[in-house]
């Protein structure tokens, strides 16, 4: 055997031994602490894990970046967007050993429980953008015992990836005779189905939308995951009963809000499809005023509870019965109450105003 062949053989044997381990299963004990510099069997130190907690926007890198990562590294990264946003990450540079050194990106708060979005290895992945579907993204980087490379650097931000924004929305349709005519009721439905939601990114990676029809002391409702597209959603709206106006007299504002806020209440989660890590919004169409101050206060008990749970309440007055100023205390604030004098004024510009209102953040911003 000549020397060249021997070397080749040695390489092959080495390759069999040291490379291409099965993908390492992320290990919980590595989380929430920095990996110490430890000599591994091959004598190459492990990399020092960077911080593991990130919020808002910033930069994440592999261990030791811009120097090479170490051998046997295992580092976790937890990225959190403010309520109402999702995480988007973009790689500026990415180079790892293609067979064996992996970055796992999970669509959710934990590498243990969240679905895997993508497993990355190799190079030429720069500029690729990945998005979470909720406010959380987590990542796990693992390297094997040989061949360390530069690794990765990525910037992340808190963004909206859905149109008009990443929220889960209940749209409550008013079925009361205070709308005036049955034709008005149908105009309201047509507005919701054919104008308000036509531009929305409806579905599990965008906005989940659940329509509710409320009248007297009942409601008809659909789950948030019943509609996976705009046309699904339009069918749900159009599936509401045909003649809700006849005999549907107003009971009280208290009853209306007890019915409708129940579907947003986290203590009362009978509705399927709400996602955790996504802001909840109730858009409530109204055609009537409270009976009196006591009724307003009684309704406010329900809306206060919902708002204290972090949900947004947008109120939409459908006619001049509704005093916008009087409704502000039942909403998330003055910018969350809109109105028209008549349902015939429900148009595309007004739809855009509703979409903007529900995308506001009452609390923190990125
Ligand atoms: C990353 O940074 C670039 C350059 O500043 C920017 O254009 C891009 O939007 C950023 N991407 C993310 C996901 O933050
Ligand atoms: C609307 O409500 C506000 C606040 O309750 C009140 O001051 C105002 O007089 C009301 N407007 C009408 C037209 O009733
Ligand atoms: C739909 O989106 C287009 C383009 O962004 C915009 O011009 C239009 O006003 C939107 N329509 C509604 C009803 O929001």
TrEMBL record:
Signal peptide location: 1-20
Gene3D superfamilies for this protein: Spermadhesin, CUB domain, von Willebrand factor, type A domain
Pfam families tied to this protein: CUB, VWA
Xref: PROSITE patterns: CUB (PS01180), VWFA (PS50234)
Domain CUB: 49-159
Domain VWFA: 168-354
Keyword Disulfide bond attached: yes
Keyword Repeat: yes
InterPro entries in UniProt: CUB_dom, Sperma_CUB_dom_sf, VWF_A, vWFA_dom_sf
Keywords, ordered alphabetically: Disulfide bond, Repeat, Signal
Protein name (database record): Uncharacterized protein
Organism annotation: Plectus sambesii
